[in-house]
Design brief:
Blueprint: H1 9-33, H2 35-41, H3 46-67, H4 69-72, H5 76-94, H6 101-112, H7 118-132, H8 139-161, H9 178-196, H10 198-202, H11 211-216, H12 221-225, H13 231-255, H14 260-282, H15 296-310
Helix pairs in contact: 1-2, 1-3, 1-6, 2-14, 3-6, 3-7, 3-8, 5-7, 7-8, 8-9, 9-13, 9-14, 13-14, 14-15
Length: 313
């Protein structure tokens, strides 16, 4: 889609209408594919929520290059070429070029909320890791992957959320690096995804749980591929859930310093996504035959509590 010149009022009005339509597409896609995340965005002011929808769709498009059903049928070389083309497309967005709906909303978002291209390129690099890796020996290796595919989202959205003016005058001991907290929240979310999707990932031949952890709890890859839920599996999963909760806790200090109009939405998203870990426990860790999620009524009940928490640092 080309939005054309803004030299005349008619052209300008048409361009604005086209842009609004493109944002609506992003809203619909976010609501369809990220229900918990979408609920949090609806608590943001209009300009911020639109920007977050645009970033979400860019991230989803990036993820689909590797994880869509079509991608599963593509040779590695073809996928690598698609990632290279996507990287070049992303660079043109940061140069201000509009060629379709997604580039239009992204260019508009970057004009309103300027930021570095690095997190976007790092996320693409995370997708490249999936080209050649389907196992991780250590958590340090997995942490790098989680940063690239999800910690980067925290950095992308940080500039949209904004910081409370009081952050710059706060005592150093009470003001953690907001970027570290943003990355921590992204990693926490990705670890939660990994634990929820163990069964789905094994269907693609992928095991994201570190081999060192499997060995520690005497649970084999063969056990995982067979979907065996035994004492060893439950102990392994309890350890993984504890680790994910630690990453959520790391993020909390930074959330407290977000701008006033962003704290409630982010607290809501954080608490609801962390609730997936509670759901996994209620399923007695059987994520092979069940999908963990937070019920709609639980989401609504949590809204006022998240609001109260967001009013205090």
């Amino acid at each position: 889609m080309t939005f054309g010149s803004l030299d005349s009022p008619i052209a300008g009005n048409q361009a604005e209408a086209n842009l609004e339509k493109a944002y609506k597409i992003c809203q619909k896609e976010t609501a369809q594919w990220a229900k918990t995340f979408y609920l949090g965005t609806m608590l943001l002011p209009p300009l911020k929520r639109r920007a977050i929808w645009a970033i979400y769709v860019w991230c989803r498009r990036t993820d689909e290059l590797m994880d869509s059903p079509e991608a599963q049928k593509c040779p590695v070389g073809e996928l690598a070429e698609k990632l290279d083309k996507w990287e070049e497309f992303t660079k043109t967005i940061f140069e201000g070029n509009v060629v379709d709906d997604l580039s239009a909303v992204m260019v508009d978002t970057l004009e309103r909320f300027p930021q570095s291209i690095k997190p976007f390129l790092d996320m693409i690099e995370g997708q490249r890791m999936d080209l050649y890796r389907d196992r991780y020996d250590t958590f340090e290796e997995l942490e790098l992957y989680c940063y690239r595919v999800a910690g980067t989202v925290g950095l992308m959205t940080q500039g949209v959320m904004g910081l409370d003016p009081a952050y710059t005058t706060a005592p150093w001991s009470n003001s953690p690096d907001p970027s570290d907290a943003a990355i921590a929240l992204g990693i926490a979310n990705q670890l939660t995804n990994i634990l929820r999707d163990v069964g789905e990932d094994r269907g693609r031949g992928r095991i994201y749980l570190p081999k060192e952890d499997l060995d520690r709890f005497n649970y084999s890859e063969e056990d995982l591929m067979a979907g065996k839920v035994n004492h060893e599996w439950k102990a392994l999963m309890a350890f993984q859930l504890s680790r994910a909760r630690d990453w959520f806790m790391r993020s909390e200090a930074g959330v407290r310093w977000l701008s006033a109009d962003a704290r409630w939405p982010v607290w809501t998203s954080l608490r609801l996504y962390r609730g997936i870990l509670d759901s996994i426990e209620r399923l007695d860790y059987d994520v092979f035959n069940n999908r963990a999620y937070v019920n709609g009524w639980a989401k609504l009940l949590d809204l006022p509590l998240s609001y109260l928490i967001s009013q205090y640092r």
